Structure formats: structure tokens, C-alpha cells
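Progress note, sequence design subtask.
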């Protein structure tokens, strides 16, 4: 292939990629950012207990794979991440009584990224949960603590 054809081919690939990228909505781009950052934060803060597959640890640590439970409690997840859990909870008909440690230094944006990742992985599909959602959901748990 001549240099001219290679350059033309690379230009076409670049143009196609630019068109595809520009067709994504701001919401799609934000979702991708939150999800990617949430994965990194999950690996750092949550994976040791909940596992890389979200299955939890026997009857000690609850799984993150119960889509019904996560859908029902989506507005509470931010509080659990930030302030921990000391109450028992019933997940998939199993009672879990272990405490979950708090992450009080995580900013709202990181909480939002974690919730986006958790609620869109392990069989879940709840969509973008942004920093505004986190701020709103964290207000009641700050008052109750």
C-alpha cells in the first residue's frame, strides 16, 4: 500500500470514530465516566467483601446481585456506602447481620460513581446515578445519624 492510501485510510477511520463519538449524548458520556470511576472505586473499597462478581461472602456479606433488593433500596445505597451499615438486612431471603464499614471521606461524586457501578453490574441495570442524586439521597441519612 502506498503512503497516500494508508494516510487516507487512517483519516477515514479517524473521521468515523469522531462521528460515532460525537453522536453520544451528554448523558451517555456521563454514564460512562461514572461507571468507569465506580469500577475503580469498587475494586478499591468494596471488592474485598462483596467479591469481584458481587456474590458477597456466604451468610456474612450480602450479595449485590439481587436486582429487586437494589431497585427497592437504591436511594439508601449512598447512605450505606458513606455511613456504613450496623442493622441487619434481608437480601434474597437471607438475613445478614455483619456490619459494613463506613467510608466517611468519600465525596458525593465518588458515592455516585459507586452507586452507578453497583446498580449497573452483577445483573443490575438502573442507569446513571449522578452527584445530584447522591447529594439528595445523603441528606436524610446525615440527619438520622
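Output:
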Amino acid at each position: 500500500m502506498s503512503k497516500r492510501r494508508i494516510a487516507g485510510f487512517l483519516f477515514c477511520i479517524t473521521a468515523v470514530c469522531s462521528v460515532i463519538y460525537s453522536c453520544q449524548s451528554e448523558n451517555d458520556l456521563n454514564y460512562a465516566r461514572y461507571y468507569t470511576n465506580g469500577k475503580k472505586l469498587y475494586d478499591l473499597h468494596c471488592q474485598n467483601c462483596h467479591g469481584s462478581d458481587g456474590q458477597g461472602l456466604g451468610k456474612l456479606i450480602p450479595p449485590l446481585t439481587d436486582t429487586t433488593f437494589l431497585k427497592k433500596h437504591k436511594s439508601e445505597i449512598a447512605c450505606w456506602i458513606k455511613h456504613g451499615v450496623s442493622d441487619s438486612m434481608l437480601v434474597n431471603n437471607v438475613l445478614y447481620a455483619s456490619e459494613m464499614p463506613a467510608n466517611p471521606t468519600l465525596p458525593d461524586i465518588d458515592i455516585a460513581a459507586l452507586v452507578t457501578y453497583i446498580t449497573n453490574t452483577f445483573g443490575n441495570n438502573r442507569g446513571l446515578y449522578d452527584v445530584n442524586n447522591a447529594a439528595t439521597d445523603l441528606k436524610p441519612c446525615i440527619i438520622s445519624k
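Strands lie at 89-91, 94-96. Work on this subtask will continue into the next period as scheduled.
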